[in-house]
C-alpha cells in the first residue's frame, strides 16, 4: 500500500524553533491518528522554509524555482494532507511563509486537507489564525480543519505541553486532519459543487 503523505511546512526563522516544534507535534498527532484508523503506512516530511529563503526570493524575481524549492512545492502539492505553521509577526503570518505560498500555483491546493498553526510571544496573537491564516487558505479553496492551533511562549514553559491545554488542541487538530485525509484521500473537490457566479446570478429573482 502506498503511504499517506503528510507534509508539514514550518516558517520558523530560528534554530531551535518553537514553530518547528509545533509542526513536529502536529505531524506526530496526525500520524498517530491515521495509524489508529488505517493499516496504510504514513510518510511525514517537514519543509523548513528558512532553508529555502534565498530560493524563494529568486523565484519571485525570476519566476523559476531552484531544485530544492521545486522539490518542496511538489511535496506540498502532492501531499494527502498539509500542516502549515508560521510565526506571527505584526498580527499576521510571516513574509517568508506568504512568499512560499505565492510560488505555489493557486489551483494546486484546491480541496487539499490543511491544518493551520501558529506561534507567538503571547496569546493575544492567536486571532491571526482566524483573520489572516484561515482566509488565506479559504481563498486557495483548501479544506481547512476546524481546530487551529496557536502556541504562545507560556504554552511551552508551563508544565508539560504534551498533556496540558496545548496537548489537547494538538491531538484534536491531528485527529481532524486525519479524518479529512481518510475521507478525501485525493484531496479533490467535486466539480458539481462549484457553481459559477454568473450562473448563480442568472437564477436569482428579485422578490415581489
Automatic annotation (TrEMBL):
Highest rank taxon of the organism: Bacteria
Coiled-coil residue spans: none
UniProt key word Flavoprotein: yes
Every NADPH-dependent FMN reductase-like domain range: 5-156
InterPro entries: CE1759_FMN_reduct, Flavoprotein-like_sf, FMN_Rdtase-like_dom, NAD(P)H-dep_FMN_reductase
GO MF term (any one): oxidoreductase activity
Matches recorded under Pfam families: FMN_red
Keywords: Flavoprotein, FMN, Oxidoreductase
PANTHER family recorded: FMN REDUCTASE (NADPH)
Protein name, per record: FMN reductase
Origin species: Streptomyces mexicanus
Amino acid at each position: 500500500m502506498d503511504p499517506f503523505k503528510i507534509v508539514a511546512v514550518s516558517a520558523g526563522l530560528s534554530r531551535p524553533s518553537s514553530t518547528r516544534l509545533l509542526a513536529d507535534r502536529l505531524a506526530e498527532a496526525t500520524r498517530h491518528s491515521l495509524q489508529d484508523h488505517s493499516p496504510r503506512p504514513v510518510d511525514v516530511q517537514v519543509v523548513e522554509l528558512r532553508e529555502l529563503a534565498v530560493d524563494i526570493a529568486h523565484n519571485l524575481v525570476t519566476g523559476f524555482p531552484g531544485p530544492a524549492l521545486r522539490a518542496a512545492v511538489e511535496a506540498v502539492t502532492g501531499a494527502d494532507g498539509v500542516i502549515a505553521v508560521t510565526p506571527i509577526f505584526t498580527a499576521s503570518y510571516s513574509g517568508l511563509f506568504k512568499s512560499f505560498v505565492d510560488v505555489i500555483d493557486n489551483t494546486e491546493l484546491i480541496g487539499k486537507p490543511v491544518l493551520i498553526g501558529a506561534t507567538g510571544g503571547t496569546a493575544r496573537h492567536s486571532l491571526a489564525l482566524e483573520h489572516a491564516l484561515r482566509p488565506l487558505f479559504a481563498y486557495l479553496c483548501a479544506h481547512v480543519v476546524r481546530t487551529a492551533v496557536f502556541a504562545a511562549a507560556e504554552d511551552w514553559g508551563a508544565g508539560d505541553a504534551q498533556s496540558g491545554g496545548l496537548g489537547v488542541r494538538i491531538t484534536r487538530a491531528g485527529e481532524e486532519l486525519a479524518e479529512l485525509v481518510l475521507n478525501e484521500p485525493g484531496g479533490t473537490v467535486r466539480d458539481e459543487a462549484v457553481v459559477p457566479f454568473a450562473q448563480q446570478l442568472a437564477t436569482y429573482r428579485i422578490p415581489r
